[in-house]
Amino acid sequence: MRRVALALLVLSGVLGFFSRLGGWNEVALSEPSLDLRNIAAGQNIGPFLADGTELRDRLSLRLLSTRCKGAIFLSASDIYSHLPEKLVAELYPPTEWRNFYVYRGQVSTQTPDYPLRDIIRRKISLLLLSPVNLSEITLFSFHLPVSCSNDDNAAIAGATAIITSAARQYFSYQ
Amino acid sequence: MTTEAARAASGRVLERICAIIKEPSDRDILAAFFAALFLQVYLSRAFIGSANGHLAAPLGAAELIGFAAIGSMLQRLNSDRILRSWDYVAIVFGGVAIVHPWSRVGAVVLTVLGLLFIFRSDRRRASIGQLCLGLAWLGLWGPLVFRVIEPWFLPMETALGYLPLSMFGSFSLVGNAILSDAGHGVVVNPACSVFANTIRTTFIWLAMVKVQGTEFRSWHFRVLALSLVTVFLLNTSRLGLMAYSYNGYLFWHESYGARIMSWTMLATVIGLFCFGLRREGSS
Fold first, then answer.
1. Do the Cβ atoms of A154 and A160 come closer than 8 Å?
2. Same domain, A23 and A77
């Protein structure tokens, strides 16, 4: 029994170590993430035009729109670790900015809930090596100057364009 | 002469390996398990992390000291039989399970083994159990608990960082963010929290107590408390320095400052444990 145990442990150690170095590791399992720095200035983001990034509450993408004079700021965060609304209101005061969120193709003025069952499902997907959809885990925050009118469809189109572009980059990287 | 000595040494190693294969002791089984775990969960991630940049290399000083302590405990086992038949099943099952690339599997296996070992009367075995649970706490349960307490822990920690700052200028506190009137602000993320440092400090303390081979004494806990307070003060002062100005943030977060602070914390903690715990041992 001891010899069998020893043989299995040695085999598992050697196989596991080399398979990890060979690519079957956590990098292959890691969840995709959005890096807004990959979006070049001048690139079309749905109905918007990207105008570079800026470090505000977190890395934010500056967007230009024909329907808005000032710059629109967009940041993307994990739905699990977004900034509290109180802090967003401090950084983008409601007297000067309209703040709204896009998650799973839905627009809301408050951060959406992320129920425990979704967290568990996400962790199980990771454990079972199933790919995680970027749109399922990314929360987009839009900050528009108050002088600009809200356009929910434009925001949804912008968020979808970013997801599509990022997924293309992620899978070409993989 | 040197060649002969090398040949003799390699002959002895081969002999030892043959003896282990012929009749492995409990110590050999446990050593094989921990070697497999170290290679797969810790060492491989350090390689992948440094080559790829996607993973923060988790093979820190705490883990290395922990494995050194496990090695020291295994050495003390000699050829004693301390494992039961169920233990073999658990060890082999765990050894095979950690082939799965998700590193948290290793922490789950360590938890099971830790719970199997910790309540046994043999002190060496109970110590290995404690170290297993400590490694599992570092890798899985600590971060998980932090996820739960984060909503109130981070604002409290940020508030403590904000307190001394208010004497040096006009700052405001919003949840886990410190904003200055000059337009600069920092948001304290989970990665910047002192929580991770405190669990690492506690684990290093546990490992060093085990390496010394002593039982827990009240003095040990005082040394631990002093170290935790020191780590907390160092991290809080770093938060203040980052929030004070944008240049401060760049240095203490993006540049050498982060490394200086982590090395200072490690050196302070190890220094405190070396002198504090040794004093007890010699008395």
1. no
2. no
Question: Contact B29/A24, CB-based, under 8 Å?
Answer: no
H or E stretch at A5: helix A2-21
Tally the domains of chain A.
2
pLDDT at site B232: 93
Q: How many CB atoms lie within 10 A of CB A131?
A: 13
Tens of pLDDT along A28-52?
Answer: 666 777 778 888 888 888 888 888 8
Cα B126 vs. chain centroid, distance in angstroms? 18
Domain ranges of chain B: 2-282
Name B13's Cβ contacts closer than 8 Å, sequence gap at least 6. none
Q: Choose the mutation target among B27, B54, B83 for the interface with A, i.e. most A CBs under 10 Å.
A: B54
A9 closest CB neighbour out of B33, B187, B190:
B33
Q: Chains A and B: how many Cβ contacts under 8 Å?
A: 114
Both tokens of residue B48?
């992948």
Note the pLDDT of residue B214: 67
Examine the domain organization and report whether A2 and A55 are in the same domain: no
Are residue A18 and residue A49 in the same domain, yes or no? no
Nearest CA in chain B to A119: B147
Alpha-carbon distance B21 to nearest alpha carbon in chain A (angstroms): 7
Residues A72 and A149 in one domain: yes
Confidence of residue B57 (pLDDT cuts 50, 70, 90): very low
A13–B95 C-beta distance less than 8 A: yes
The verdict on A118 and A49 lying in the same domain is yes
Which regions of A57-150 does DSSP assign to beta strands (E)?
59-65, 68-78, 97-103, 106-108, 138-145
List residues of chain B with CB under 8 Å from any CB of chain A: 20-21, 23-25, 28-29, 32-33, 35-37, 39-40, 43-45, 47-48, 52, 54-55, 85, 88, 91-92, 95-96, 98-99, 101-104, 172, 174-177, 179, 185, 187, 189-190
DSSP A38: G
- Say yes or no: A44 and A69 in one domain: yes
- Structural domain of A9: 1-28
3-state secondary structure of A47: coil
Nearest-10 Cα torsion for A148, A154, A156, A161: -120
